[in-house]
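Entry 0007
Protein: L-seryl-tRNA(Sec) selenium transferase
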Amino acid sequence: MKQYLRELPPVHEIQNNERYVRISSASHLANEPLKEIIQEAVDYVREQLLNGHIPSNQCSKNDFMLMILDFTEEKINTFVKARLTKVINGTGTVLHTNLGRARLSDNAIKHVSDVASSYSNLEYRIKEGKRGSRHDIIEDLLIKVTGAEAAMVVNNNAAAVFLILRALANEGEVIVSRGQLVEIGGSFRISSIMEESGAMLVEVGTTNKTHFYDYENAINDSTSMILKVHTSNFKTVGFTESVDTKELMALKSLYPNLTFYEDLGSGSLYDFKKLGIGDEPVVREVLESGVDLVSFSGDKLLGGPQAGIIAGKKELIQKLKKHQLARVLRVDKMTFAALEQTLKVYLSEQDRIHELPTVRDIIKSIDEIHGQAEFFKKYINKSSALYEVDIQENTSQVGGGTMPDVELATVVAAVSHRIFTANELAEKLRIGNPAIITRVKDDKVLIDFRTVTGKEMDDLMGGFLELV
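Output (structure tokens):
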């Protein structure tokens, strides 16, 4: 075995190989990471030899060189390829957490690009020529769209919850209904975040029923806050009862020193209820009911970038802005740029709402979806005899822990291949360029065009036809 190990070429010999020179030059990587990749390749081949996975008595020095170069080329290609890439979402789930949730509008994307490619007035007041605060950039827009006295932005809604609890309820008791002690994606638990914040959780009611008197009886001299939590990705149905926000506000006159805070989770600025889609509360309506603070996500129903938005009473927002955690949790110029253009749509004429991909896709008509599906079917059937495409009725989901009980009527293209199984076809589409993410059901690949734009149709159909 030792004599075969001695046949492995040294690093400098690989570096002088013509094929390696060509590969390394095309990669534009520096010498140090390239050298490390070569060493990984040599170590890999050595390990394969020692473990008997390579028949040493059948390999020459040239064979080993080819193995090392193959491994090196594959490793370099993987290394230089973009980690974060675009995918085509054919699942029909609009706010697909694994696929990045909300897509940004064209105006938001352009504004991000403009701001990111130059210097900006992130913390600079141009008129006065003095230092400013990033909190001021879009606060007026948030005030107008929510009706709040003041508002601020942190990096996500979990951060918003933590900041509010830490700054306003540290070492105080916070009353929460047992039916709202949720755990959402990534093992984020309200009870755990409360413990980290220093606030003390006081559970009231039961899993399925919480009454007004449960809250009232729990209030004492140590109570700092009453927290109402959006239940996110689940619904309690059947023998249930809860206290709505307006009813809870009856306690406000009796206990004026308590903070009434509602974590809305998704935070809708558009009233989907008027279209018969879910029962998601509109942020403005919640604030008008009298709560002191609300928080919600920027990249869910709002349709913007990842952010946590806090809106409510000016006195409380000022305390949050001055807290040391506000700097830790602050957002950057690109988030502000995207959020600014997203919010302006809500302050524009109603027909502009379709500029926001999230809202547009949720309210997308069945006729439009059906039209895309039929076009796809005709094109694929005409272009390849290996596919069979049927149009079927189905349902889409909103996703992102939003409206878990809402099913949006849709149609899908159900695709089968004469050679590949549905799982094989789904995998080949997924590893294509761009990746096409689908659903598989009843041994067919399903494409839901609710989440496929007209601009993506060519890439989608091309991805299928590349596999024939």
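Curator remark: The two ends are 45 Å apart (CA to CA). The chain is about 40% helix and 15% strand.
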